[in-house]
Write the structure tokens for this entry.
Amino acid sequence: MTNARNRRGDTVSLGRLHYVGVALALITGVIHLALGVPNVPSTLGVLFVLAGLGYVGGVVLLLRGVARRPLYLAGIGITVVQILAYVALNAGDLFSPVAVVDKVVQLALVGALVVLYRRET
């Protein structure tokens, strides 16, 4: 089992919910990269690539043992902003299949991160 450091620097095992969060972050990260890379010349394409890399980076940081609580808060904030931006920018076409999958994954990720944050408070 992979070990990581919690906010006090103690080595603790990652639990099942951590791995659920990792899977959700990687899913939304891959979706953002897949949609962004072909459109990199555009600003939106670059933003999608950065978002995808951010999710992958967050997983790497978790597995490397950085302080978890700030990582959870950053993940919650970034993901909520992405959901709100999606709704604001796509008011006429909110229900494309890829978007629905991604938003469900992101909502589940926010839920997992909130639970993990509250457990470590």
Q: What stands out?
A: The longest strand covers residues 3-5. Residues 15-119 form one domain. Helices lie at 16-36, 43-64, 68-89, 97-119.
